[in-house]
């Protein structure tokens, strides 16, 4: 009898842990992906898996888990790391009246000639666009171009670039937790896209 009890209790506990773990499952998968080596040839399937040639965990302890917008989403680049200064784990706290810096290291799989930014908050299943000015987004947000005052966008394939954008968090935003869908596109095709669990405070 008591043995059965123990087994049932064990099962309940197991299910509870599974439920708890559901949200972090993506995170765990990403942590495993992070160890995947970069492939020289064309990236088959391009799953936005982060790839690193060195032991990245030592090099960038602040790198957040990468949560792709969709499973098996085809994108024009791979994300290598996402860093938000001041945030080591989700949800990141975004303070109203401040700007939050978003830094992405990415490696294009094709030559890139333009970038458009699209950010939405996912609130109770519906998507609300953030109003943004993304004029010349590529030249102003790719650090390698901005530091040279580049006048046009030209990114080579299989070369890692650093992207940085300061997202203004308006005072008018209500304080609440939400998922941010952060996407950079080239002419409608996704260059990279990730979800960012945040809390507006
Ligand atoms: C990448 O290319 C180099 C030289 O062509 C080769 O030695 C190395 O094994 C390749 N690495 C992978 C992951 O394919
Ligand atoms: C990781 O990087 C550190 C510093 O660059 C180096 O000393 C160490 O040997 C590396 N470890 C592995 C397993 O590559
Ligand atoms: C870019 O522009 C800034 C401000 O106009 C200037 O200080 C800087 O020297 C320029 N950098 C390069 C690499 O031309």
From TrEMBL:
<dbReference type="GO" id="GO:0005576">
    <property type="term" value="C:extracellular region"/>
</dbReference>
<feature type="region of interest" description="Disordered">
    <location>
        <begin position="32"/>
        <end position="60"/>
    </location>
</feature>
<feature type="domain" description="MD-2-related lipid-recognition">
    <location>
        <begin position="66"/>
        <end position="198"/>
    </location>
</feature>
<comment type="similarity">
    <text>Belongs to the NPC2 family.</text>
</comment>
<dbReference type="Pfam" id="PF02221">
    <property type="entry name" value="E1_DerP2_DerF2"/>
</dbReference>
<keyword id="KW-0964">Secreted</keyword>
<keyword id="KW-0732">Signal</keyword>
<protein>
    <submittedName>
        <fullName>Ecdysteroid-regulated 16 kDa-like</fullName>
    </submittedName>
</protein>
<feature type="compositionally biased region" description="Polar residues">
    <location>
        <begin position="51"/>
        <end position="60"/>
    </location>
</feature>
<dbReference type="InterPro" id="IPR003172">
    <property type="entry name" value="ML_dom"/>
</dbReference>
<feature type="signal peptide">
    <location>
        <begin position="1"/>
        <end position="19"/>
    </location>
</feature>
<dbReference type="InterPro" id="IPR014756">
    <property type="entry name" value="Ig_E-set"/>
</dbReference>
């Amino acid at each position: 009898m008591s043995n059965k009890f123990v087994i049932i209790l064990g099962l309940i506990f197991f299910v509870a842990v599974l439920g708890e773990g559901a949200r972090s499952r993506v995170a765990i998968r990403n942590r495993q992906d992070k160890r995947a080596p970069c492939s020289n040839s064309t990236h088959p399937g391009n799953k936005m898996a982060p790839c690193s040639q060195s032991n990245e965990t030592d090099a960038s302890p602040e790198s957040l888990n990468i949560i792709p917008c969709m499973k098996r989403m085809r994108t024009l680049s791979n994300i290598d790391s996402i860093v938000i200064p001041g945030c080591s784990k989700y949800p990141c706290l975004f303070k109203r009246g401040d700007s939050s810096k978003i830094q992405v290291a990415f490696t294009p799989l094709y030559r890139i000639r333009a970038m458009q930014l699209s950010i939405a908050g996912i609130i109770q299943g519906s998507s609300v666009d953030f109003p943004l000015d993304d004029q010349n987004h590529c030249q102003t947000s790719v650090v390698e171009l901005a530091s040279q005052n580049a006048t046009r966008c030209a990114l080579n394939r299989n070369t890692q670039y650093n992207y940085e954008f300061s997202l203004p968090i308006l005072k008018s935003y209500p304080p609440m937790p939400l998922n941010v869908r952060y996407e950079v596109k080239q002419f409608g095709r996704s260059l990279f896209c990730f979800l960012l669990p945040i809390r507006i405070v």
